[in-house]
Structure formats: C-alpha cells, structure tokens
C-alpha cells in the first residue's frame, strides 16, 4: 500500500467528494429542466355515446391520483373547424411528468393498471404521442 500523507489524503477526499457532488448537481439540474409530455387520444367503440364518454372521463379523473403526474388535462374535441384538426376522438388525456423515469413509474403504477383493466372495454383504439424536451417558461 502506498504511504500517503494526511494532507494529501484530505485533499484527495475533498476532490473526490466535490466531483461526486458536481455530478449529482448536474444530473439534478438536467432532470429539473427536462419535461415529458404524454398525450393520449381515446376513440370509443360507441362513438358519440355520452354515457361511455362520461364513464371514461370518470376513470381518467381517478387516474389523476398517480403521484408522478405534475399536470393533467382531460378534454373533448373543441368546436374549431380547420382542415388540419382531428376531431374523431372522444376524449383527450394530456399529462406532464418531470422526466421519462417518472412517466415509466406512471405506466406501471397500480392506479394506471386498474384504469386500463376497468375502462379499456370502452375504447376501440388509442393514439399516444409522447414527447420530451426542455422546460420553457413563456416569454412575456
């Protein structure tokens, strides 16, 4: 074993600890600037069925209890009319997560699994758009 002075030991320990903290702080800073967006469009088996739409919205409201969700929006098609607007879906589910890992926790969460089990009979299919990018504050 190499003989090391107390001064060098303390210096090396401080440098190692500092490097570790810098790595943790960089990771935390990156994670806090990252945003994961999960947008799901539900197309019901019984399109335009108000009872089925209400039932699905009931299930989505229960799904908001998953703790990793930071912000959520449940919506139905707006009355806008332009050629680029898709209006064939019944309900839109939009939620934001701090990062991909938080969204993966949501996917496996018992509340989410229960939602799929109890409400999937209502939809014909879903389309999911996932996106990741930096957090940005709106410019004033």
Describe this entry's structure for a reader.
- Residues 36-131 form the Stress-response A/B barrel domain.
- It comes from Arcicella aquatica.
- This is Dabb family protein.
- InterPro entries: Dabb, Dimeric_a/b-barrel, TAT_signal, TAT_signal_bac_arc.
- The protein has 140 residues and is of the alpha+beta class.
- The chain is 44% helix and 25% strand.
- It starts with 5 loop residues before the first helix and ends in a 6-residue tail after the last strand.
- Strands 2-3-1-4 form a 4-stranded antiparallel sheet.
Kindly list the characteristics that best describe this protein.
140 residues, alpha+beta, Alpha-Beta Plaits, 2 domains, 4-stranded antiparallel beta sheet, 4 helices, 4 strands, Dabb, TAT_signal, Dimeric_a/b-barrel, Dabb family protein
How many strands?
Answer: 4
In round numbers, the mean pLDDT is 85
Distance between the termini: 62 Å
What is the C-level CATH assignment of the largest domain? Alpha Beta
In total, the number of domains comes to 2
What would CATH call the architecture of the largest domain? 2-Layer Sandwich
If strands are numbered along the chain, what order do they take across the biggest sheet? 2-3-1-4
Question: Which structural category fits the helices and strands?
Answer: alpha+beta
Portion in helices: 40-55%
């Amino acid at each position: 074993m190499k003989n090391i002075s107390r001064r060098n030991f303390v210096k090396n320990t401080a440098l190692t600890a500092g490097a570790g903290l810098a790595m943790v702080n960089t990771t935390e800073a990156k994670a806090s600037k990252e945003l994961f967006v999960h947008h799901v469009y539900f197309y019901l088996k019984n399109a335009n069925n108000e009872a089925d739409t209400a039932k699905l919205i009931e299930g989505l409201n229960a799904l908001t209890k998953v703790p990793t969700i930071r912000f959520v929006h449940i919506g139905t098609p707006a009355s806008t009319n332009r050629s680029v607007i898709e209006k064939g879906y019944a309900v839109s589910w939009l939620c934001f997560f701090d990062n991909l890992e938080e969204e993966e926790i949501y996917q496996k969460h018992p509340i989410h699994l229960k939602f799929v089990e109890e409400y999937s009979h209502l939809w014909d299919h879903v389309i999911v758009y996932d996106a990741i990018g930096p957090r940005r504050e709106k410019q004033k």
